[in-house]
Sequence to fold (473 residues):
Amino acid sequence: MTDMTSGSNASGAAIEPSLHRVMGPWLLLLFIVGDILGTGIYALTGQVAKQVGGVVWLPFLVAFIVAVVTAFSYLELVTKYPKAAGAALYTHKAFGIHFITFIVAFTVMCSGITSASTASRAFAANLSGAFQLNLETGIGISLVALAFMAIVAAVNFRGVGESVKANVVLTMVELTGLLIIIFIGLWAIAAGQGDVSRITQFATSPDTSVFWSVMAATTLAFFAMVGFEDSVNMAEECKNPSGIFPKVLLAGLFITGIIYVLVSISAITLVTPADLGEGETPLLKVVQAGAPNFPLWIFGFITMFAVANSALINMLMASRLVYGMSREHVLPPIFGKVHARRRTPYLAIAFTTLLAFALILFVGEVPALGGTTALLLLFVFTIVNIAVLVLRKESVDHDHFRTPTFLPIVGAICCAFFAGPWTGRDPVQYKIAGILIGIGVVLWVVTILVNRATGVKPADVHMEALGGDGPVN
Fold:
């Protein structure tokens, strides 16, 4: 975990070094775009199409709007408190209740695990589709996903040095795959192939109106927009964060939003909603339909690379957040142990990996895992939008971005709305989220008992240090 304390102590005896400010606007932009792009659009386009039909682009657009509104709240907070923190810090500053802060931090951790599990499933499906391994949809895909997650855990245990500049390369690979889809779609449309009229066709059901179909699909599409909140953790490493962050974050959101809409239009033009919604490799089908001579393994490799990167980053985040919470005495101290030789939090890695294994084995399906990630984050985003308004009473000694007051209100209402069961969200997502948060509450109680037994008092718990990255796509 990043140490949130900096500056001098009360006696002026020591000054903590600050992070090196190396990120200008272009590096920050690529970091943000890279965080948002990934598993969501690669894996869930077909499931969104199954919900709404040809207007598959519309739920992505609605999710984009909700993300932008919430991004304004993050912008005020990150420019007001330009530290390498996250939602947990903002929650603690706003409410000062340790349990609420812990739940937010644990929820962020869980969203990272569900996101990584989604990516592992997508990796296995694309491996099978691209290289024609003909794995059975059930156990075969699950076994490959488990093996992939085990490799991620091994890399995590070995230790990974993350670099912002390396993220540029990863972003370009992910972006290349989506640009290939857009190019294939536009080329096919220009050649008179496909059916452009599908983009205005809604799926109809006697039991569900068009409005609620779009709302249900948006709960899935929102998973494709997560990642923008992760950029707040780079604030301390940005040049003039209060000046460049607002423009760059909004630019990154708009770029990804446009890409998602264009990918959706290309996909539905070339593949029917029914075919697009079958299986877990929707964009591979688009390549097959629009460019049958294009080497399918190349696109499959790009997809696998994109989702593999997402899984690794998310599991790194989740394990380090568990480690940080343990060191702050809000999770059992056993998770704070570091391997003597590798210098990595091996028990935290084991704990988060076992949770991922359980999700892959007992949940498995991409829509359920991706939808749960969105559900968990919508809860966090609701809290963050409220925290902005609460923290208006606290002033800081530097200029910062201030969002119009109505936006956090709209953001809180929208995020709470999309987290509700009335949207048609699959009930299994609430079960998964409830079990995960329930595990956190049990561990919280265990930690309290351990703290009492070992003499650790609540005043010793400095929850301002809780932060950690949010999940990426």
User: Anything to note?
Assistant: The domain at 20-462 is CATH 1.20.1740.10 (Amino acid/polyamine transporter I). The chain is about 65% helix and 0% strand.
